[in-house]
Every structure is written in C-alpha cells, then in structure tokens.
Design a protein that fits this description.
By secondary structure, the chain is of the alpha+beta class. It has a domain of 72 residues. The protein contains 3 helices and 3 strands. It has a 3-stranded antiparallel sheet. Strand 2 and strand 3 form a beta hairpin. The chain is elongated. 2% of the residues are buried.
Length: 123
C-alpha cells in the first residue's frame, strides 16, 4: 500500500490530489529509502462503482456498445447481441488486521430487439 499526505498539516488533501499522477508516484517511489516508523491510521472502508464505457471507448472499443455494429455472433446465433453496460465495483478496507481490497467487473450483454411494428391502415 502507498500512503501520501501533505507534509504541512494546514495544506488540504485536495492540494495533493490535484497534482497526483502515476509519474509523480513513480518519482516518489524512486526516491524512497527504508526507515523504521510507527504509522497510525484510522480504520476505514471505501467503495465505488465505475462505468467502464467511456474508458473502453477511449481505448477504441466502440462497436460493442452499438447494437447496429456489435458482432457477438460467435456467442449466439439466435440473437444480435451488444454490450449495454460495463461496470466495475472496487472496495478497500483497512483495519487492525491489515488491508483487504476487492474488485468485481460486470459486462451486461443485451439483445437487440426488433423494431416495434406500427401499421397505419386507417385514414
């Protein structure tokens, strides 16, 4: 686990979160040395759910979310399928016993329905 907080107590945590990225964490890790310290943390639990559609689309996976473009014919030859939702739920719990983290991902596949038939046979 990696724990970071502003050195000065009067500096809000938001000041750190505004500049925090993978490159800064990598730089910090490169400058670390081993030292004996007593770390006191309150126990806490955090949980969040993330919609993965936009990140997957940013990676170029767009067709699977579009009923008219998705091709899952190798999964089912009966229905035209597409991904209607992609979600990830993560949880971290820190207590006296240690840290437990879990993650679950759900991909909801839906069938494209035939268009509703409307018959206009009256004046």
């Amino acid at each position: 686990m990696f724990i970071a907080a502003p050195y000065e107590k009067e500096v809000p945590l938001s000041a750190l979160t505004n500049i925090l990225d993978a490159q800064l964490i990598s730089q910090w890790k490169g400058n670390m040395t081993r030292q004996l310290r007593l770390l006191v943390l309150p126990k806490f639990s955090l949980e969040t759910e993330v919609n993965l559609r936009r990140p997957l689309e940013n990676l170029g996976m767009t067709d699977m979310f579009r009923p008219n473009l998705a091709d899952f014919s190798s999964l089912s030859n009966q229905e035209v399928l597409y991904v209607s939702r992609a979600l990830q739920k993560v949880k971290i719990e820190v207590n006296e016993s240690g840290t437990v983290a879990s993650s679950s991902t759900a991909i909801i596949v839906s069938a494209r329905m035939a268009p509703e038939e409307i018959i206009m046979d009256r004046p």
